[in-house]
């Protein structure tokens, strides 16, 4: 009888989130670390890109300064996965968005200089930056998926019951598009 009770208790515990909630939390934290890793990769590429453009477009100082400033702001903003509130995530997104916009302006400047666009080191950096932007998108998508799984575990019965009794984890914050991303860009010919 004790063996049957033990087996029944073991079955209940394995199906109620005792293992799956911490595993999902670990996956969420790992996914967030990968998001930060890809943003760091982008930030590391920026100085090389700026220095390459400087040689060709010295009089575009305002754009170059904006990129350097946005990079500094983006790299100063860090958020610990365990303290990822919607407010902190929005602040992080804002800093990264500022860098994205500054890099966009830098690419427009590069279009004005055919010699710069033809330079091998600029092309290589541009390709690396494009690849990094794709990696950021992939890392963010994976983070969104792991947060969804975690949030389901802590809010959907029966694992929500285990969470409320044992762990008391709150739902994790998700990425949200900036308001400016909601509007379609204007294309003029």
The number of strands is 0
The count of helical stretches stands at 8
Shape: elongated
* Sheet with most strands: none
The percent of residues in helical segments reads over 70%
Strand content: under 5%
Rg computed from alpha carbons, rounded to a whole number of angstroms: 23 Å
Distance between the termini: 81 Å
Order of helices and strands: HHHHHHHH
Q: What is the residue-mean pLDDT, rounded to a whole number?
A: 80
- Can you tell me the residue ranges where pLDDT is under 50 for at least 5 consecutive residues? none
Summing up helix and strand content along with how strands pair, one would put the structural category as mainly alpha
Provide a compact summary of the structure.
The protein has 189 residues and is mainly alpha-helical. The chain is 78% helix and 0% strand.
